[in-house]
Amino acid sequence: PYSWQVVPDGLLYPNYLAGVREPRMGIQLFHEKELGWLWDGSIGLRQGLIRYGTTDPLWPEGWQLDVEAAAFPRLTADKYGDMISCDYRYGTALTHRRGRFETKLAYYHLSSHLADEYRYVLPWRPRINYSRFALVLGGAFYPWQSVRVYGEAGYGVYTDGGNEPWELQFGIDYSSVNPTGFRGSPFLAVNGYLREEVDFGGNFVLQAGWQWRGTTGRLARFGLHYMNGKSVQYQFFDEYEEQIGLGFWYDF
Asked: First CA to last CA across the chain, in angstroms?
């Protein structure tokens, strides 16, 4: 039966596992052939505020209002650990799930900042005011219980710093939705992200490894990380990167 719930467990529209700007706790150590060894982190969460729906934390249905916030710092992986840049995002989403179908209507703000340490080492590198307020419409479908196919389109109602309105994101996740216990289970995630400001180029992300899911749906993952395409740090949005490394991710 449906009921009203405040701060419910679980999400009706979970994060994309290989999404480059999803609010979660995570860290990736990777090598980039031009920049060397780097850390890319994410410090944030997505949480439901109120739900009208079922109470199952693993597979809830109904309607839910979520909020999200996250910071995405990049640091050098040498002994100094200098911060290069950091992107910030916050927003809200109205989400719905019924059976195998999920939908969301979301609004978010994202801004990018060049770190003081990087500006001191390379003072000739100009800072750009990359900032956007965007509306997003997304949908997902589960052809099988552990397989999720998704896609979304976003439009920036306000843009600055070189970005342009349209963005497209799509992908597929293979991940068990049931509690795994200590043994865990494998996962595989593929994500494509296209942006108008780079002529609808963007990046491709592949992650694969092992996961552990708890009884409330929270998910911890460890595995390989590969990214190819335009930088996910938007101070360098039009620069090419190839990342090969390891990552750990935790979704609430």
From this structure: 24
- Strand partners of residue 5: 51
218-236 pLDDT per residue, tens: 999 999 999 999 999 999 9
Distance from C-alpha of 19 to C-alpha of 33, rounded to nearest angstrom: 22
* 8-state DSSP, 118: H
Each residue's pLDDT tens digit, 106-140: 999 999 998 877 766 666 677 889 999 999 999 99
Strands (E) across 33-61 are located at 36-53
User: For the chain, which domains are there?
Assistant: 1-251 (2.40.160.40)
Name the token pair of 119. Answer: 């500006």
**Other CB atoms within 10 A of residue 195 CB:** 24
The neighbour count for residue 126, using CB atoms within 10 Å, is: 8
Q: What is the pTM of this model?
A: 0.93
Helix or strand (DSSP H, E) at 64: strand 62-76
Cβ(223)–Cβ(246) below 8 Å: yes
83: β partners: 75
Q: Return the ∠ at Cα 101 (arms to 98 and 102), rounded to 5°.
A: 90
Q: Left (φ > 0), alpha (ψ -120 to 50) or beta: where does 217 sit?
A: left
Q: Scan for tokens 């640091």, then name that residue.
A: 75
Interatomic CA distance for residues 190 and 184, integer angstroms: 20
What's the token pair of residue 185?
């289970």
Distance of CA 188 to the CA centre of its chain: 15
Per-residue pLDDT of 35-63, as tens digits, reads 789 999 999 999 999 999 999 989 999 99
Structure-token pair, residue 65: 């209002």
Judge contact between 89 and 68, C-beta under 8 A: yes
